[in-house]
Automatic annotation (TrEMBL):
<comment type="similarity">
    <text>Belongs to the cytochrome P450 family.</text>
</comment>
<keyword id="KW-0408">Iron</keyword>
<dbReference type="GO" id="GO:0016705">
    <property type="term" value="F:oxidoreductase activity, acting on paired donors, with incorporation or reduction of molecular oxygen"/>
</dbReference>
<dbReference type="GO" id="GO:0004497">
    <property type="term" value="F:monooxygenase activity"/>
</dbReference>
<dbReference type="InterPro" id="IPR001128">
    <property type="entry name" value="Cyt_P450"/>
</dbReference>
<dbReference type="Pfam" id="PF00067">
    <property type="entry name" value="p450"/>
</dbReference>
<keyword id="KW-0812">Transmembrane</keyword>
<dbReference type="InterPro" id="IPR036396">
    <property type="entry name" value="Cyt_P450_sf"/>
</dbReference>
<feature type="transmembrane region" description="Helical">
    <location>
        <begin position="6"/>
        <end position="25"/>
    </location>
</feature>
<keyword id="KW-1133">Transmembrane helix</keyword>
<dbReference type="GO" id="GO:0005506">
    <property type="term" value="F:iron ion binding"/>
</dbReference>
<keyword id="KW-0472">Membrane</keyword>
<keyword id="KW-0479">Metal-binding</keyword>
<protein>
    <recommendedName>
        <fullName>Cytochrome P450</fullName>
    </recommendedName>
</protein>
<keyword id="KW-0560">Oxidoreductase</keyword>
<keyword id="KW-0503">Monooxygenase</keyword>
<dbReference type="GO" id="GO:0016020">
    <property type="term" value="C:membrane"/>
</dbReference>
């Protein structure tokens, strides 16, 4: 036998033994280990149950849950994961034991974005998060603050409807998904940063869109951590570059707001700059403010746009409901005026 064939067979034999041992350990742990009594499909070594998710994971999980019940255990790579799929069990996790499950996983993308742990959305549950959240609730998410941006939202919406009318007259095709993302991005930036035109050079909407995309990519490193160091998908490198660009832009936004007092989210947060937030001695510094601003922009843009897109597509899929809605709107508002926020119940 040629030496290369012998080497190949030896490597194969070592790998097979390695996988067998891993498989043995993982299946023993999965089924019988203490504290892991949840039912669930048997995981493979290395990839766990990833191969069972398919291209529509929500449907695959639905079918698995039908077999294993409303609380099952699966492994995403080496990450043990509990899948809950009934209202009472969801209530147990999200309400009764909320504090235990409130933290977010430490995914690679967030670790590569500096300060992500100083914000609100991805910060560990604890005194720092509680203080930041309290400040946001008391200063930013008050009914009067939200109401104060109503004219801004109306202005963006008017431009949007005008552009639709023009496109209709010219019989142009409009990409509604793209438009919804644009107007939501614009509204959010105006509420958070104020005069967005000033910051146009930083292309913040594009940067945030890129961040949302990267964060949504299936990143092998999050599930098979030993592959993280190799950055096989290039995610770590591109996130670092993106993080630097975002940081540069947010530094400029803060400097600008420090020079001229403004009433937007950044302006309000800056009134807390360098203040101690809690008895633990946590301080609201520039890093905290940059992280909170970024969280607000990311959390406010894609979520609302995706919700609107989903609602519109459901209406298109159900003409009976669409007709009912059109009739209701016509009977209340006619064709005379645009529906206002305070028309809503
Ligand atoms: C239809 C639109 C939206 C949807 C469906 C949505 C959904 C969610 C969900 C499911 C969470 C996680 C809650 C949790 O884990 O307890 C969340 C958190 C959050 N959202 Fe939204 N959101 C929307 C709009 C917004 C907007 C407009 C903003 C701000 C401008 C925002 C800011 C945040 C923040 C800061 C968090 C983190 C809260 C925390 O960790 O304490 N969201 N959102």
């Amino acid at each position: 036998m040629a030496p290369s064939a012998i080497t190949f067979l030896t490597v194969l034999a070592v790998l097979c033994s390695f996988f067998y041992v891993l498989f043995y350990i993982s299946s023993r742990k999965h089924g019988k280990g203490k504290g892991e009594a949840l039912p669930g499909p048997r995981p493979l070594p290395i990839i766990g149950n990833l191969h069972m998710l398919g291209i529509l994971p929500h449907q695959s999980l639905y079918h698995l849950a039908k077999k294993y019940g409303p609380m099952m255990s699966i492994r995403l790579g080496s990450v043990p994961t509990v899948v809950v799929s009934s209202p009472p069990v969801a209530e147990m996790f999200l309400k009764t034991h909320d504090a235990i499950f409130a933290s977010r996983p430490k995914v690679q993308v967030l670790q590569s974005i500096s300060n992500s742990q100083r914000g609100i959305a991805f910060t560990e549950h604890g005194p720092y998060w509680r203080s930041v959240r309290k400040i946001c609730n008391m200063q930013l998410f008050t009914p009067s603050k939200i109401e104060s941006f109503a004219p801004t939202r109306k202005e963006v919406l008017m431009h949007f409807t005008e552009s639709l009318k023009e496109a209709a007259t010219a019989k142009e095709v409009v990409n509604i998904s793209k438009k919804l993302a644009e107007i939501n991005g614009e509204m959010t930036l105006m509420m958070v940063l104020g005069p967005v035109k000033k910051y146009k050079e930083f292309n913040l909407i594009d940067l945030v869109e890129e961040l949302t995309k990267i964060a949504g990519v299936f990143n092998l490193a999050d599930f098979v951590p030993f592959l993280g160091a190799f950055d096989l998908q290039g995610i770590k490198a591109s996130t670092r570059t993106l993080g630097e660009k975002l940081d540069y832009a947010l530094e400029a936004v803060i400097d600008d707001h420090l020079q001229k007092k403004q009433d937007d989210f950044v302006g309000v947060l800056l009134t807390e700059l360098d203040q101690t937030m809690n008895p633990n001695g946590d301080i609201m510094d520039r890093n905290s403010i940059k992280a909170i601003i970024l969280d607000m922009i990311v959390a406010g843009s894609d979520t609302s746009a995706a919700t609107l897109e989903w609602a519109l597509s459901e209406l298109i899929r159900h003409p009976r409901v669409m007709l009912k809605l059109q009739q209701e709107l016509e009977s209340i508002f006619g064709n005379k005026r645009i529906v206002e926020e305070n028309d809503l119940p």
